[in-house]
Amino acid sequence: MRRGLEKLRLRGEGRAKLVAFEKFLERADVLGLDGPGGGGWSVAARLWATASLNPPAFTFSDADLLVAATAAYHGRPFATADKALAEGASEGRIFHHCAARFDGVISRGNQVRP
Fold first, then answer.
1. In this structure, are residues 72 and 32 in contact, taking their beta carbons and an 8 Å threshold?
2. What does the pLDDT read at residue 104?
3. For the chain, how far is it from start to end, CA to CA, in angstroms?
4. Where are the domains of the chain?
5. Cβ–Cβ under 8 Å, residues 49 and 60
6. Does the CA dihedral 51-55-61-67 come out positive or negative?
7. Distance between CA atoms of 43 and 45, rounded to whole angstroms?
8. Least confident piece of the model among 50-64, 68-82, 83-97
9. Which segments of the chain are extended strands (E)?
10. Cis link prior to 56 (omega < 30° from 0)?
């Protein structure tokens, strides 16, 4: 989001959006993958490897992989607009061999699985 907002700002547009975004970040709990021993990045690597090797194989986009790994690392719900990914995650087909656990799966605002 920051990249897009910065691009708008440099074009002379989006100043109000940038200010609103900064105010939002002041109140938001921003989660990442950095942690002791690179634990979050290990979750991301494990998700990618297990999803690609275990049938049915699934290829993550970089963005979906980072969102999924962050959700799993912090024990939060996994939110995605990708219906196949949401269904696969909720049914255990994509992550069934991985130690990642999500506190629910959300797709387009609808809870797929608690």
1. no
2. 58
3. 28
4. 1-29, 36-113
5. no
6. negative
7. 5
8. 83-97
9. 78-80, 105-107, 110-113
10. yes
Q: What is the pLDDT of residue 23?
A: 92
Q: Which amino acid is at 35?
A: G
pLDDT at 91: 62
Structure tokens at 106: 């959300």
SS3 content of the chain, % helix, strand, coil (to 5): 55, 10, 35
DSSP, collapsed to helix, strand or coil, labels residue 54 as coil
Tokens representing residue 96 in the block: 């069934």
For residue 68, which of 109, 111, 42, 100 has the smallest C-alpha distance?
A: 100
Output the pLDDT for position 114. Answer: 46
CA distances from 109 to 11, 81, 83, 105 (A): 32, 9, 11, 10
